[in-house]
Amino acid sequence: GQQLNQSPQSMFIQEGEDVSMNCTSSSIFNTWLWYKQDPGEGPVLLIALYKAGELTSNGRLTAQFGITRKDSFLNISASIPSDVGIYFCAGGLNYGGSQGNLIFGKGTKLSVKP
Amino acid sequence: DAGVIQSPRHEVTEMGQEVTLRCKPISGHDYLFWYRQTMMRGLELLIYFNNNVPIDDSGMPEDRFSAKMPNASFSTLKIQPSEPRDSAVYFCASSLAGYEQYFGPGTRLTVT
To answer: How sure is the predictor about A94, in pLDDT bands with cuts at 50, 70 and 90?
Structure first.
């Protein structure tokens, strides 16, 4: 079945740094989404991408839908302490009865540098 | 606006007991999803509904799990009998016509 490889698995940030993470797959997806999850909460939708090559921003967050439709990137500029959490990518399929079915990556955990 | 509502937030039960998790999706959304999250397996889709009809239940682990959506504003996920390996956080999510899924706060289930 489809799998998403998300990297890095974890990273440490210092306030003010830019952060990059990505998600790759051997399969093509029609949609890419990025979510953030805080401890004890459900994932919160950050950005949704629907078109290959699309670049979309949400405040300090920017995400891109790869041209090959097999990858996506998320960048966070000028990180702040509240950016800490787990970031998930999700790929959406649309064939047969799979409308709305998302495949999730394993997540990138952002922590503050000690 | 109210988001997805799940109850209970925490459930502790003994092996063999029946467990029922509840979800109220966002009003007007026509898709409802049930997920399970564990450290080992991450977020797994169990089942999803479109207009109250189950579309794909291939993620339901076994016959002990069942889900219903009797109307557009309510769904249940039932585990009977429960086992320790069912311990996880269960999320409900809803969406309007597609992929932008909005998650509830989750139910943390512990089976002893």
So the answer is: low
